[in-house]
Amino acid sequence: MTEEKKALKMQIEIERIEALRVYENEYDYCEFICGIDEAGRGPLSGPVVAGAVILPKGCRILYVNDSKKLSEKKRSELYDIIMQEAISVGVGIISPARIDEINILQATYEAMREAIQKLTITPDILLNDAVTIPRIDIVQVPIIKGDAKSLTIGAASIIAKVTRDRMMIEYADIFPEYGFEKHKGYGTAAHIQALKEFGPCPIHRRSFIKNFVKE
């Protein structure tokens, strides 16, 4: 790639990131803006994880996006940058057993509340990916597909996704027959086949797998 093309590509990325700051700019009167997102609502196994991220005012981290649109390598690189640049980061993790107990939506809310509680600073406003979190006294702005529209929510989605993926890779060492390192607990054909062959393990969500196995 020529230097001119590199410069053009970089300029396009800078403009994209600036466009991602529309909500941060709108609420710039707030000192601490926190983005909230989750990872792992859909899988058959593993926890649901929420990330809460407060970035410095004017922060622009290139290549931040909806975590699902990024490669695993890029997510990992951005995770390190976000952890270094952020004013505060909180992570909430809710177990498969708890998901079965209260359902995935309530578990997601619980993970988000836990992530907020783990922040070292109380935010002035929350920019949430799509949802309004019950039992939170902070002003909330739910944004549909917010992880692709807000830099702060995008950063939170990366923190949540990388945290959960790394947990599932660790679980793969404990329960190697399921291939968690490949599918991260989602219902792929290989995962469902392993589930039928070996039955559920302790990190499977019983309420999610009843169509595939009989206990």
UniProtKB/TrEMBL annotation:
GO molecular function terms noted in the UniProt entry: manganese ion binding; RNA binding; RNA-DNA hybrid ribonuclease activity
Cofactors: Mg(2+); Mn(2+)
Keyword terms: Cytoplasm, Endonuclease, Hydrolase, Manganese, Metal-binding, Nuclease
Major place of residence: cytoplasm
A GO BP entry: DNA replication, removal of RNA primer
Record-listed a divalent metal cation binding positions: D37, E38, D129
Gene3D superfamilies: Ribonuclease H-like superfamily/Ribonuclease H (3.30.420.10)
Catalytic function, reaction form: Endonucleolytic cleavage to 5'-phosphomonoester
GO CC aspect terms: cytoplasm; ribonuclease H2 complex
Domain RNase H type-2: start-end pairs: 31-215
EC category name: hydrolase
Annotated EC: 3.1.26.4
InterPro entries (alphabetical): RNase_HII, RNase_HII/HIII, RNase_HII/HIII_dom, RNaseH-like_sf, RNaseH_sf
Domain of life according to the entry: Bacteria
Localization (cell): Cytoplasm
UniProt remark on cofactor binding: Manganese or magnesium. Binds 1 divalent metal ion per monomer in the absence of substrate. May bind a second metal ion after substrate binding.
Function text: Endonuclease that specifically degrades the RNA of RNA-DNA hybrids.
Family label: Belongs to the RNase HII family.
Protein name: Ribonuclease HII
